[in-house]
């Protein structure tokens, strides 16, 4: 069942989203060679606590951390850990913020120091693919329009789109209907309606789209060891067009 949100509910989610955007902005300078993803986890927990917010991922379906930290060939759901990040790594930090009961979800791939041109181009195309998806998140369009915009652009740029993980509705809990694949056919799927709040979170790989699961039963990584990047926003569908609730640039 798709739950649509009131203007007030969307405003509250936007407050959570602005706080989350602030975390990613801070992480731009916090993340550098020598920092560990466990230090990032602790930094985020403190940042949220100081502002009266909590991390919604901790305890969700047994997940034990506030952040997911996915390094290089890890696609998503990497665990924060004690090994130091190295120059040239890319790391995706994903989190869900709960502020006064309202949720927002955003993932961002960060560069660790100087990175290769290959990694930078993957990140740039992945971020652009997210915005191409968001452009389609408007009343009257269909879910397939979002995935189609992402997939056609990503593949034309030579990358593959991960199929095993999708965007999703978000509201009282992290994952609600509808599911938003980052691939598909234009004009197909459920119609997008005013008041829907969804995440769009494309994961693009340099090599094959296929993933395999680590023994921890959480972390997915590319089958061929190539790099993977991800950008995610929480987006409200309104009669005035999509509102990005986790935008960092405003
Ligand atoms: N933030 C994730 C998403 O984009 C959810 C992570 S699953 C969790 O869908 F268990 F880590 F919370
Ligand atoms: Co997320």
Derived structural class: alpha+beta
The CATH homologous superfamily:
Creatinase/methionine aminopeptidase superfamily
Shape, principal axes of CA atoms: globular
What is the architecture at the second tier of CATH?
Alpha-Beta Complex
- Quick one: biggest sheet? 4 strands, antiparallel
Low-confidence spans: none
Mean pLDDT: 98
Ligands bound to this protein structure: 2-amino-4-trifluoromethylsulfanyl-butyric acid, cobalt (II) ion
Strand tally: 15
- Provide the succession of SSEs: HHEEEEEHHEEEEEEEEEE
**What distance lies between the first and last C-alpha atoms, to the nearest angstrom?**
32 Å
Number of domains: 1
Number of helices: 4
Classify the beta-strand content into a percent band: 25-35%
CATH topology: Creatine Amidinohydrolase
CATH class placement: Alpha Beta
Description of the structure:
The protein is of the alpha+beta class and 250 residues long. The protein has a single domain, classed as Creatine Amidinohydrolase (Alpha-Beta Complex). It has four helices and 15 strands. The protein has helices at 7-30, 37-50, 117-135, 143-156, and strands at residues 53-55, 67-71, 74-76, 90-99, 102-111, 160-161, 167-169, 176-180, 197-200, 203-205, 211-213, 220-222, 228-230, 233-238, 241-244. The strands form five sheets. Strands 1, 2, 4 and 5 form a four-stranded antiparallel beta sheet that branches. Strands 3-12-11 form a three-stranded antiparallel beta sheet, with no helix packed on it. The protein has a three-stranded antiparallel beta sheet with strand order 6-10-13, covered by helices on one side. Helix 1 crosses helix 2 and helix 3 packs antiparallel against helix 4 (143-156). The longest helix has 24 residues, at 7-30. The chain is globular and about 45 Å long. The two termini are 32 Å apart. The model has no long low-confidence stretch (mean pLDDT 98).
């Amino acid at each position: 069942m798709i739950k649509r949100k009131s203007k007030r509910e969307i405003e509250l989610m936007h407050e959570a989203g602005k706080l989350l955007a602030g975390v990613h902005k801070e992480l731009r300078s916090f993340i550098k060679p020598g920092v560990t993803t466990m230090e990032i986890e602790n930094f985020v927990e403190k940042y949220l606590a100081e502002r009266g917010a909590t991390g919604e991922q901790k305890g969700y379906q047994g997940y034990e951390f506030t952040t997911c930290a996915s390094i290089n060939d890890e696609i998503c759901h990497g665990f924060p850990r004690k090994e130091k990040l190295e120059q040239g790594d890319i790391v995706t930090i994903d989190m869900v913020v709960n502020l006064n009961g309202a949720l927002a979800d955003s993932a961002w791939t960060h560069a660790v120091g100087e990175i290769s041109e290959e990694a930078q181009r993957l990140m740039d195309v992945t971020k652009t693919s997210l915005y191409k998806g968001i452009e389609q998140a408007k009343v009257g369009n269909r879910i397939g329009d979002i995935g189609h915009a992402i997939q056609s652009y990503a593949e034309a740029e030579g990358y593959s789109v991960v199929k095993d993980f999708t965007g999703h509705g978000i509201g009282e809990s992290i994952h609600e209907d509808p599911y938003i694949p980052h691939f598909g056919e234009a004009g197909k799927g459920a119609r997008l309606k005013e008041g829907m709040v969804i995440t769009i979170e494309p994961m693009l790989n340099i090599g094959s789209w296929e993933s395999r699961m680590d023994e921890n039963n959480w972390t997915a990584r590319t089958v061929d060891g190539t790099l993977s990047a991800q950008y995610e926003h929480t987006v409200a569908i309104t009669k005035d067009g999509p509102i990005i609730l986790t935008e960092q640039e405003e």
